[in-house]
Amino acid sequence: MTLIRSATRADVGTILRFVRELAAFEREPDAVEATAPMLAEALFGARPAAEAVIAERAEGPLGFAVFFHNFSTWTGKRGLYLEDLYVTPDARGQGVGAALLAHLAGVALDRGCARFEWSVLDWNADAIAFYRKVGAVGMEDWTIQRLSGDALARLAGR
Fold it and tell me: DSSP characters for the chain?
């Protein structure tokens, strides 16, 4: 049976390892800039930016999810946004991802969230099929927009 538990500061090394493995899977192995101290502050500091849960069995950690709240003016309620979901290759197909999603769906309901949302790479057919199987609907009319680096600084006038 898979146990889903809230991450603790002691899990930061495992979370960072999973983040790096996820980046490699997503074909961006050199894109991770986060460090253990950065994650510790972001997840467990005075003003946490996000939360994390760990999926584990007797053999150890098998995956994780990082999430935070967003807000919908249309519903007047917060939502839960899943930033990262990762399951180790050996544990895939064993219900670990489903357990993580089900846990977070419960968190969303317990906290009165109107929505539970996430993004998925368009080439990740296995993940998309899995998400459709649990009832997720793709937002075909929406695209993600991002500002970072120099473009972000330019827009801010800095």
Answer: --EEEE--GGGHHHHHHHHHHHHHHTT-TT-----HHHHHHHHHSSS-S-EEEEEEETTEEEEEEEEEEEEETTTTEEEEEEEEEEE-GGGTTTTHHHHHHHHHHHHHHHTT-S-EEE---TT-HHHHHHHHHTT----TT-------HHHHHHHTT-
